[in-house]
Amino acid sequence: MPLSGAFPLISVRLVTLGGDRESILAVRNLEVVYGAAIQVLRGVSLEVPSGKIIALLGANGAGKTTLLRAVSGLLRFHRGSITRGTVEFDDQRIDRLDAAEIVRKGMAQVMEGRRIFAELTVDENLRAGAFTRRDRAGVKESYEKVLQLFPVLAERRRQTAGYLSGGEQQMCAMGRALMASPRLMLLDEPSLGLAPLIVQQIRDLIAEINKEGTSVLLVEQNATMALSIADHGYVLENGRTVKDGPGQALLADSDIQEFYLGVGETGQHSFRDLKSYRRRRRWTA
Question: Is 6:228 a contact under the CB 8 Å cutoff?
């Protein structure tokens, strides 16, 4: 079934997980609770092969943001804890490290809602992203690369970041993360609240960042955008992985079309505002 209004696909080389390329991130059988009572993740496992884009899909409340918090070391700030499983980055366990240590190891996160420093200038926001680095020459090189990648930020360098448009703020947040020179970037809902044309620009920028050598774990409800550039994708539901496969295979999957792209017999157009939903279970965990 063709996708109505889908983004044009970027040609990617699909990867089989567990193949020749080693994983830069490996999450194994992860369980997470909040406040020692509310279990959110129930045995989630996924891999991000080095140099690839991995998409993580699911409705609101599926556990996507919680998974990112567990990976980036921010879970404890939200009164959450890992009760089972491991998170490995470059074959080293990081689930017991704090966020700053994880950033120094080569990981950066762009949070949902951008979370830029609204009262600071674009220039100050970008330089704040390099707070863990001491190599001035390297920081200068990263700064120049960010401005080349995001020309609009070069034009707005002296402007207060809070006055940027939504798309420009998203670019500022992504540029700030790149200032840490990460080998793995975590992106949480980068398309949220943006116009379709801006979403396509953000998609192309993510593909370009990956092309330059940065691995990406992309959390999205916009399945069309995410799967159009993803090498592999996972679908979360109620804290469990219920489906995974190559990005383009998932994009063509009838269940994904029906329940995540709004194409099919249910007539449901969007799950963006839903916390949970009912459906026939035609796929298995």
Answer: yes
